[in-house]
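Project standup — Tuesday

K.O.: blocked on the structure for the chain from last sprint. Re-posting the sequence here as requested.
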Amino acid sequence: MSRCTERIFNGLVKENPTFVLMLGMCPTLAVTTSAINGIGMGLSTTAVLIMSNMLISMLRKIIPDSVRMPAFIVVVASFVTIVDFLLEGFAPDLYSSLGLYIPLIVVNCIILGRAESYASKNPVLPSVFDGVGMGLGFTIGLTSIGIVRELIGAGQIFGFQVMPDSYEPLTIFILAPGAFFVLACLVALQNKVKNNLARKGKKVPAAGCEEGCSSCASRGICGGHPTPPAEDENKSEKEEA
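H.V.: unblocked you, prediction finished:
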């Protein structure tokens, strides 16, 4: 698997922002009252992720470490402003539905997290594909939740009626409690599938075993093996001497 393909697979499966890392929960729970809202927010975030990863990777040797986070926020805010204006001009209905959550992409922890843990340390092309993978993973997560909530809560999918006229919608699913319930059920379903695969002896993708993943960055793990502490390395050198 090439490095670029691995970054897409990482965002879609191994480190899916919604179902694995549980990042960006604010828009995930707030805007997924319908499938179109989920896909709109997901694709908007994907566009910002790709462009910000690309520019931050290009500037990674220029931006001083002391001001890297303010610089990242300025870069992300610039692209969010562009997306905000484009949605307002060409998709006013979607813009009205998403409302304040479009400007709040600036502080989405997925974007700042990928900028800090991957784009600022890697070349441009892998960083772009990292943005594609994480963005599509986020989009799939939001769209899946939106489809379930809209289907059960309104009997529709993408605005089209799919349930019979006799169906009585459960409106709680398009309210706040429904978001938590659907997210919990989808995560439980994903974990059950992974457990069944592991029980059958099949390889189950796990987060934290590739270069640049958030688990490696936070726990000092790479390739699934803990990095030896500096003290142990010094002790070994002394024993050999």
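K.O.: great, moving the ticket to review. The chain has two domains: 3-199, 208-241. The CA atoms of residues 156 and 162 lie 5 Å apart.
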